[in-house]
Amino acid sequence: MKPTLKSRPETASLLAFGAHPDDIEFGCGGVIAVETRAGRAAHFVICSRGEAATHGTRAQRTSEARRSAALLGATVEFLELDGDAHLERRVAHAIKLAGALRRLRPGIVLAPTPGENQHPDHSRLGQLVRDAARLARYGGVRELRANAPHAIGTLLFYAVTPEAEPAIETPMLIDISAPEIVAAWTAAMEVHVSQTRARDYVELQLTRARLYGLRAGVGHAMALFPNDPVVFDSLAHVCRGARGF
Amino acid sequence: MKPTLKSRPETASLLAFGAHPDDIEFGCGGVIAVETRAGRAAHFVICSRGEAATHGTRAQRTSEARRSAALLGATVEFLELDGDAHLERRVAHAIKLAGALRRLRPGIVLAPTPGENQHPDHSRLGQLVRDAARLARYGGVRELRANAPHAIGTLLFYAVTPEAEPAIETPMLIDISAPEIVAAWTAAMEVHVSQTRARDYVELQLTRARLYGLRAGVGHAMALFPNDPVVFDSLAHVCRGARGF
Amino acid sequence: MKPTLKSRPETASLLAFGAHPDDIEFGCGGVIAVETRAGRAAHFVICSRGEAATHGTRAQRTSEARRSAALLGATVEFLELDGDAHLERRVAHAIKLAGALRRLRPGIVLAPTPGENQHPDHSRLGQLVRDAARLARYGGVRELRANAPHAIGTLLFYAVTPEAEPAIETPMLIDISAPEIVAAWTAAMEVHVSQTRARDYVELQLTRARLYGLRAGVGHAMALFPNDPVVFDSLAHVCRGARGF
Amino acid sequence: MKPTLKSRPETASLLAFGAHPDDIEFGCGGVIAVETRAGRAAHFVICSRGEAATHGTRAQRTSEARRSAALLGATVEFLELDGDAHLERRVAHAIKLAGALRRLRPGIVLAPTPGENQHPDHSRLGQLVRDAARLARYGGVRELRANAPHAIGTLLFYAVTPEAEPAIETPMLIDISAPEIVAAWTAAMEVHVSQTRARDYVELQLTRARLYGLRAGVGHAMALFPNDPVVFDSLAHVCRGARGF
Amino acid sequence: MKPTLKSRPETASLLAFGAHPDDIEFGCGGVIAVETRAGRAAHFVICSRGEAATHGTRAQRTSEARRSAALLGATVEFLELDGDAHLERRVAHAIKLAGALRRLRPGIVLAPTPGENQHPDHSRLGQLVRDAARLARYGGVRELRANAPHAIGTLLFYAVTPEAEPAIETPMLIDISAPEIVAAWTAAMEVHVSQTRARDYVELQLTRARLYGLRAGVGHAMALFPNDPVVFDSLAHVCRGARGF
Amino acid sequence: MKPTLKSRPETASLLAFGAHPDDIEFGCGGVIAVETRAGRAAHFVICSRGEAATHGTRAQRTSEARRSAALLGATVEFLELDGDAHLERRVAHAIKLAGALRRLRPGIVLAPTPGENQHPDHSRLGQLVRDAARLARYGGVRELRANAPHAIGTLLFYAVTPEAEPAIETPMLIDISAPEIVAAWTAAMEVHVSQTRARDYVELQLTRARLYGLRAGVGHAMALFPNDPVVFDSLAHVCRGARGF
Hints:
The structure is a homohexamer. By secondary structure, chain A is α/β, with parallel strands linked by helices. Chain A has helices at 3-7, 23-37, 58-71, 91-104, 120-135, 179-190, 193-196, 201-216, and strands at residues 14-18, 42-46, 75-78, 108-112, 154-158, 172-175, 221-226, 230-232. In chain A, strands 3-2-1-4-5-7-6 form a 7-stranded mixed sheet, sandwiched between helices. The longest helix of chain A is centred in the middle third of the chain and has 16 residues, at 120-135.
């Protein structure tokens, strides 16, 4: 039913959605670095130019996003919805995102967590991507006929800030402690000069990843939250529990 | 810090604890079959002879347990605590179980879910094993000095019945649909004739595994509930989400 | 305050809302069969023709819905909102549904669960029906003046798929194990040939109902999730707990 | 399997457990009054004399309990465990309580909620009764051989204080608003003079029941929390939702 | 970063949002009375005229709101969104509310709880105010340029009805038991004659506040639910736990 | 009823319970430093000598605890229960702790969080202290007659490790960012050389406090979890929400 992924999960491509030009880097940049260094193709779809932020112009932020994606080994495109700080939860947006899923046909999809107590664009994009992942596989949606239906392999949420982490669900931790990974991730965050000059975003994310790392007994780790139970072929790859203390 | 597991997770051994002679088979027998067929060593520690059940003598149930473990490719031992239907949550028990962990030095530990609305022996054994996994790695516990401290790789809970599944936590699903796996698991359950004659236990478990399988788009699947976040090296092995419908 | 229901609950009529032509059958068809066989009037309001599905035309699916409702002893009507896979959460829709509630004046209302991790039409219809149940009893909503306000007796949610069941809330189980009930329900599901040919929907639902049945010590059972606490006159009708294992 | 209850639920007897001489009255006295006035036999098992309270002697409190039970139409017995404020969670206690269940063979069992943030005796008695309800039906528990196994029909928890209500679970509300019911309940609470002289217990409980009543659109109501999903034969008796505001 | 509040929290002004002319009074009127009597400036923003209610005209309800606010020592304004029973969750509304936040520059913001199982206008206004509190501090939102960005000090939710209280979160209780506070609050509720004539709203709220008061060992108390963790300089002001029973 | 605290909360004394010689410092040392520097008396009751740890003798650890408490401005005593890694949940222990509460008569009590997925001594001590806080105010507990009953003002839980933080409850954050506070806290942790030499405990706690600080817009902050709703006289001291990002 999902032949590609079941047969060759290691070559399935990764698609990350971000509401603003820096969300993917801040929320899961270390994981992107791990995957691209392992040879997985990664692509970013960014849904605004960050034009409602206190600092940075559209042009600056677009440029920062492009340079940052390159540092992480990812390609990038912009897909306009309602503009920064104006995102609404419309079916038309979910269909547009489903169109991107059909066109790009990723195995792994990353999106911001859908919980509502955070920047409203973040939660809504997470909700829209989740809806889109379903619409992409329904054969009869008329607006989507240009591309064949596509069933993604998995939808994983990243939290742009600590507040955006779901309270109840157990995260999966991805070990990002290889020095070159932490360095690439840090560099990718620091490219967003327009934002990091005003607020301690880089320290926030490194502190968060270090805390997860300390818990897991590694250097740094990032948390992802699966939208659905994950299916494993065996226990071979689930035998490291985070229980450092 | 956990060198064995990190370097060779696929050969780490598996240790399953059961409160009664049939709990492991009913709650995670399919997973055991997957692992032993993949070459992993599996051992069962059973903490009573099931002597408080409505049906079956101590001797019958002991014999059923031995034959069933053999069908699943596992070795088995009995470790008496307070007896069937009499298990209490004593530190002395946790220390005894920690002693078993130090002696057997497993990478993966399976135990019944610790939630309380189920057979009281089940929840208490889950709680005791969780405590034991900590005590096993503290160097100064005087009763444990006979063996070197041991840090397990991961603690995963299995639910003996549907009611025992934690309501909130997202399970990991293990695909057990290979026909020889389902057959071995079914055979192992059916060995417990003293129990299955009176109640539909086998149908209950097969129905439960089939429902998970239908959700995950496979034949049968079993749910496990990790006690701690699981740490992954990359996304290579977490890219199959259960999203069949 | 709710005189009709309090005085004659057994004759209060039942109204079930579905987002697609087969949702009611798959999610609570066995309960419908129980109620109509006991003499309760049942009516379905279906809010799309299922035209976005991979299989089946509008005409086919409409016809399947009509035949299926008849097999369950229910009448049926279609109420168009935004179309299949396009449903949005608009106040205008809630008002339209409230208008239906005022016109049909049911005692018991069934709707899909409002939790968001499922087909987006399902959750939104559940949310809209919940809003509609409130609007139906406010006297001053100008669009609703054609009919007198109406307070329903109870709003119960059904889950179209296992994923759509609320994680935390305790369900009410309805015993549907009489052979003629299971047969009528199965037949009603099988009428939806356009859908069941491609996916194991019938097996999914029967497996789910059998698992609840095994837990409750009966043949088959279906779960409903009340939107509000249920008020009972005494304990006379709440004395069968599901505690089979 | 549970033939008595299924065939004649209205005559099944009720057994309420209390940790102290006034807990049943304060936590579910109105429900007892409803049931006994409807002809159901009710019996109280009280597990201490309340001797650790700030006010009241053993003799006074015993006498208050007897008079109060009589006002509610219930019989009463005392079953000593560890004494007031000394209750521990021992298997021997669960077995003793299971023995009472086998001897008394109730259909409906009421016990205090098992959540831990309340008087420790309350939560532990709730936990012990839950365990006892399982042990009572296992055929092989040697200490229980004097009486045949017994499967109760349902286990419902009452909350002695508002803090003891489970946060997440949806309660069932029992309408106790008939004037003679409220009067009988109030009288039964007021018999506990040794306690009510020092604290506003009666006002606390009446206020709580009035708040539930206002929510449900009736005079007064009391909340019960089922330990397991409740099984219904149809929707005939679940069609009054509490949705007053 | 939040200099005003940190330096002089006691003089920061309070802004309460209500969806209908009586929501603030019913949901947190006692708290308003406490604050204005202590010298804090309070202002109400009411987002409809309550024109969809069963009773009361726009003019009546507007007049009731003005008189009630005066009794509580607050000023009041009306800000129209979609009209009573028609409120949708649009970004344009959040921006309009953010504009009010920038214009009024409050330290403390009160809004209805955002949970969805209640009057749909209540939950949506709570959600919109939460979004508005973020938008108000982003410098680049073009529609908001007329006023400088503003970061509020805290966002606290009030529950208009008991059902609207979040199930899981621990409330903060505000002691409103001074007789003049209860009197002022009661008077403010009773001004809404158009509503209170038909339903027991005043009794409902007084009963709710009395129950919280009994729990906390005071006369009456009201619950508020903070949207974010509250930051304290020390434990000096958090040392009264509600543990009356 | 709680006159002392209500009248002079700022001078109520603080009592912190720890299961091991370093738990208080690691879990809430910064808060202790804040309070003692503000003039509040603080006392530690430590319930083992940490003799089961991998490193450190009883004598070393006792000495470390004494020096550390002194650095935080607190007095300290040892109260033996079952010994390190052997703590059980016995009523006799709760009574012993209640005796300490009656003798020391604190206003504010700090204890480890009672959630079970952590070092078993930690959770059990939290549970025992919670029980003790109730027993301390019951007048009739015979073992406690040497001292008059005492009602504490509030019970706040601290988490020794991140895993021990309750998933659902909203914490209160205490701002500990004054440089002399962070310095005193760090020094107090570093005194526990026997432990910190082997594991990154100090970095773990500083990272955790820095992450809370970044969220709250301050330097460092520590989280506490109240056992009961906190009662406030007004909003004057709850107007700083943690919403930095």
